[in-house]
Amino acid sequence: MFLAELQPEEKRAFLELAAMIANIDGNLSIFESSILSKFQKEMGLKDYKHEGLAIEDILKTFKTERSKNIVLAELLQLIYSDGVFQEKENETIQIIKEHFGFDANEFGSFKDWIEKIKELSVT
Question: Is 6 exposed, middle or buried (0-12, 13-18, 19+ CB in 10 A)?
């Protein structure tokens, strides 16, 4: 939805993070694969090849509040795409949330918002 607003280096970092989360359980679902393709298309990076960067290096790329909000919202959309919020996904989101400085209320609001969007897209 908002990925086009990211800076070029943020777009590449976001794709690294999204690929990491989508593959975190060792099983890339058709839903996750579809969302990853959508992300790449939205950012004009259809041919991007993942580098497998460390999460700490990826997260340093996002400096503005706006880019952090975009990243979290889009990643939650990816996580909820297969209908399952797995423990490993939750652990990674917690790392991201803490690194970005989101408190529990902000994070809860993001989750609620993404769940509502998902409900709208199903109907």
Answer: buried
Amino acid in position 26: G
Q: Could you give the CA distance from residue 26 to residue 18 in angstroms, rounded to a whole number? A: 14
Q: What residue spans of 1-123 are helical by DSSP H?
A: 8-22, 30-42, 55-59, 65-80, 87-100, 104-122
**pTM for this entry:** 0.84
The span from the CA of 21 to the CA of 67, in Å, is 18
AA letter at 109? S
The pLDDT tens digits of the residues spanning 57-90 come to 999 999 999 999 899 889 988 888 777 778 888 8
Q: Spell out the residues 6+ positions from residue 107 whose beta carbon is closer than 8 angstroms to its own.
A: 72, 97
CA 31 to chain centre: 14
The two tokens of residue 102 are 């989101």
Residue type present at position 82: D
Which amino acid appears at position 35 of this protein? I
Cα angle for residues 81, 87, 92 (degrees, 5° grid): 80
